[in-house]
Amino acid sequence: MDKKALEAHWMPYTGNRQFKADPRIITSAQDVWYTDDRGRKILDGHSGLWTSGLGHGREEISVAVGQQIRELDFAPPFQFGHPKAFELANRVKELMPGDLDYVFFTNSGSESADTSLKMARAYWRLQGQPTKTRFIGRMKGYHGVNFGGISVGGIAANRKFFGQGIEADHLRHTMLPENQFSRGMPEQGAELADELNEMIALHDASTIAAVIVEPMAGSAGVIPPPVGYLQRLREICDANDILLIFDEVITGFGRCGALTGADEFGVVPDILNVAKQITNGAVPMGAVIAKASIYEMFMAHGGPDYALEFAHGYTYSAHPVACAAGLAALDILTREELPQRVAAEAPYFEALLHDSLADKPHVSDVRNYGFAGALTLASYPGEPLRRPFEVAMRMWEKGFLVRYGGDTIQLAPMFVMARDEMDSLIGALAQSLEELA
Questions:
Q1: Within 10 A of 378 (CB to CB), how many other CB atoms are there?
Q2: pTM greater than 0.90 (yes/no)
Q3: pLDDT confidence bin for 384, thresholds 50/70/90
Q4: Contact, 365 vs 376, CB < 8 A?
Q5: Rounded to an integer, what distance in angstroms lies between the CA atom of residue 45 and that of residue 31?
Q6: Most buried of 84, 146, 212, 382, CB within 10 angstroms?
Q7: Average of pLDDT values for 268-275?
Q8: At residue 423, does pLDDT exceed 90?
Q9: What residue ranges define each of the domains in the chain, with the CATH number in brackets?
């Protein structure tokens, strides 16, 4: 592309100066492959951005989207509805564990995070406990980029430029030295959940609305929960009348080898956030799924039946085209039993990841769960972000897309990726690490 044509777009989460000097332009996608503007095939080693586990270019989704645009391109979501919004809500409900029965649609994971935080605060106000306004997140947690999300999130770089957010404190992360190179869930660290008791002692439970965590942290570099950790958080929240929110924007709909991380790890939260995989990344969409008791509290205190029970929503909540994409994507996910395929193939990916990469130069940790894996790379002195960038750029040169963030390289194979494609991806990464030693 002409360099001048690149200038107007202020790109998100991108080093704009470097990119515009050496652009990486993707022009099309099919199955597990991208094509760039030079006509090269690029193996997508990150499912887009944790979004496209079904593979790119699924015909069922594009047909559903096209038909929906022709039939109903937009309907106002406030005070009016359309059939696919209710159909998709019921489909999502069917796929959720426990009594997570009520679906509030958003347009992204960031909007899902902030919606869940507002929902939690409002719930306690309706309960007659308006002092419960504080949130507890976790270091290295990622909950999007809106003010609520960066406040409860535990990635310092996402907060430092933007000033004061909402009241939040943070549990320690669970990346312990003794768990380095763990395969799957680490054995050590469940006791870190007990720090929640210390925060309750400091702030008092009467001031804490909710704890929000990713069942498996993704954007900080694939941090699976220690065995028993999530169960302990659930017990402490129950004992102290605190809501538990799972941010499943990455783990929702198959990534861990189950429909949700809640299913996979055996803990049901009070509120569960999704996005990304709900439409296979084809159209922006997110959702917040709440337990029946939360929804019923809003309904019971709603006043006249024409009044708003929850003064919140977005112009594009339950957008007809996004709903059509979501229905088609979830049909594929369940019909082809792709979470089950992830569970079956995850041991192969795990062995490939650890056996091929653990001994490579500058690799200080390897972590994995389901179809998610990450390396931590030792940094150049004073430049913790440089080595992952160099590795990812070398991979791009070789025809592979991986994600680099912080001091990590992150991998997220598509649920349909074949073993030889995984072999090629990990082999190229091993080679790149050797070349850049």
A1: 12
A2: yes
A3: confident
A4: yes
A5: 12
A6: 212
A7: 98
A8: yes
A9: 3-54+337-435 (3.90.1150.10), 63-335 (3.40.640.10)
